[in-house]
């Protein structure tokens, strides 16, 4: 992320300089008299390249002090550093000897310039290329429509780390593969903000029942379903807990109230969620959730867990009907709690259905379940990174979640987005 941050800062500074330059030009043009005249001045600057005493290439600004005024081999331009000094590690020779060396045998001594500019009908590329002049290595693409990408390339396609800015699209920074954006590859450290979600399954299955040891809660494993990059040992503190409260219009989590009270007593930020079903009216589900859930000042926003199968969506009348019911639940719960609920959905649901409901995508924060190595490319508040994590003090597997941001963003979320 540091590399991405620095790249974006450099890009931002460059754009600000261009904007300021354009503003000055526009301001100057506005003050030109109607019968005024323009004068265009050509300005040429020079740089001298040399190796220092350690053999590294250096450059300094220089000035032209004598221009070539003939066509003989002994005629040449003469330059001097703007500082009028001789660089360290460079041996001074006379202008006459320099001219002789520069034109010896008709060959010019010059350093090759590692610079490539490849224009086409859509924009231009600036950076390194391969043997057939395809973008390869590090480079920047600037489209005539405002599209910009800076990062790594392979065989003419974006490959590796980079960031992209495009009109009407969010900033995308992370990993690219075969010209497609994969997402941000997170490094899991103790600096990130982790949470878990609980239901009756954390208390056992069948006849065996298990209590939660609230004094021992620490994340000890991030699951095995996907590849993850971890810095240090997985022994992470838990900062927030979501607890399943209700399902449909009649089902209850028998452990909800005790888990809620215990989590609050141990200082955790707590939220409640409802599991949405496709066979009961949304308004009844919302009232069921509000009747049986504990919602107090400082609690995290309510969550609507939406996980229907394609066959269930089809049976209820299609995605349009589903989204109408989702909106109903969200509106009722928001009016009752004073806080916009969060939508819990899967990456598959995002790809297949969410584009059909742009209002939900843009107006509600998302908690997404995606069990891969890349962070989801969507406006999210939490990311469920695995369903098979391990937590000291809890028997069996636990869903592990990470907040989208570090402690400063988390504190801002707690202050502005929780129940008042």
TrEMBL record:
Under InterPro entries, the record lists:
GH, Glyco_hydro_25
Q: Which Gene3D superfamilies match?
A: Glycosidases
Source domain of life: Bacteria
* GO MF, one example: lysozyme activity
Keywords on this record? Hydrolase
Question: Which SUPFAM superfamilies does the record cross-reference, listed alphabetically?
Answer: (Trans)glycosidases, Histone H3 K4-specific methyltransferase SET7/9 N-terminal domain
GO biological process entries: carbohydrate catabolic process; cell wall macromolecule catabolic process; peptidoglycan catabolic process
| The keyword Metal-binding is assigned to this record | no
Q: Name one Pfam family in it.
A: Glyco_hydro_25
PANTHER family documented for this protein: LYSOZYME
Q: Which family does it belong to?
A: Belongs to the glycosyl hydrolase 25 family.
The protein's name in its UniProt record: Glycosyl hydrolase family 25
UniProt source species: Segatella copri
């Amino acid at each position: 992320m540091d590399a991405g941050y620095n790249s974006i800062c450099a890009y931002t500074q460059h754009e600000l300089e261009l904007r300021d330059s354009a503003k000055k030009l526009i301001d100057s043009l506005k003050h030109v008299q109607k019968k005024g005249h323009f004068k265009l001045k050509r300005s040429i600057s020079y740089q001298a390249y040399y190796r220092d005493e350690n053999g590294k290439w250096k450059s300094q600004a220089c000035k032209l002090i004598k221009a070539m005024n003939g066509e003989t081999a002994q005629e040449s331009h003469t330059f001097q550093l703007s500082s009028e000094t001789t660089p360290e590690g460079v041996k001074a020779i006379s202008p006459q000897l320099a001219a002789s060396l520069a034109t010896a045998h008709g060959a010019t001594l010059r350093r090759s310039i590692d610079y490539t500019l490849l224009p086409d009908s859509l924009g231009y590329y600036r950076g390194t290329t391969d043997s057939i002049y395809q973008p390869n290595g590090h480079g920047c693409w600037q489209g005539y429509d405002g599209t910009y990408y800076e990062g790594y390339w392979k065989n003419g396609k974006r490959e590796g780390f980079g960031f992209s800015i495009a009109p009407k699209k969010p900033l995308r920074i992370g990993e690219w593969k075969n010209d497609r954006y994969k997402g941000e590859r997170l490094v899991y450290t103790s600096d990130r903000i982790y949470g878990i979600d609980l239901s009756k399954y954390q208390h056992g299955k069948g006849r065996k029942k298990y209590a939660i040891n609230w004094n021992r809660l620490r994340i000890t494993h991030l699951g095995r379903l996907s590849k993850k990059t971890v810095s240090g040992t997985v022994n992470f503190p838990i900062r927030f807990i979501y607890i399943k409260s209700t399902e449909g219009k009649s089902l209850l989590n028998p452990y909800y109230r005790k888990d809620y009270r215990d989590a609050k007593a141990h200082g955790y930020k707590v939220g409640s969620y409802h599991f949405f079903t496709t066979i009961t009216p949304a308004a009844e589900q919302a009232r069921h959730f509000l009747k049986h859930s504990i919602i107090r000042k400082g609690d995290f926003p309510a969550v609507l867990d939406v996980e229907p199968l394609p066959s269930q969506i089809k049976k209820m009348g299609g995605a349009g009907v589903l989204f109408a019911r989702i909106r109903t639940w969200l509106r009722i719960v928001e009016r009752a709690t004073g806080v916009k609920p969060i939508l819990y959905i899967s990456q598959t649901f995002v790809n297949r259905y969410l584009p059909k409901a742009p209002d939900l995508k843009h107006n509600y924060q998302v908690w997404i379940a995606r069990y891969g190595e890349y962070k989801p490319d969507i406006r999210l508040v939490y990311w469920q990174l695995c369903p098979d994590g391990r937590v000291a003090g809890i028997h069996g597997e636990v869903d592990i979640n990470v907040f989208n941001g570090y402690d400063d963003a988390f504190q801002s979320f707690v202050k502005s987005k929780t129940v008042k």
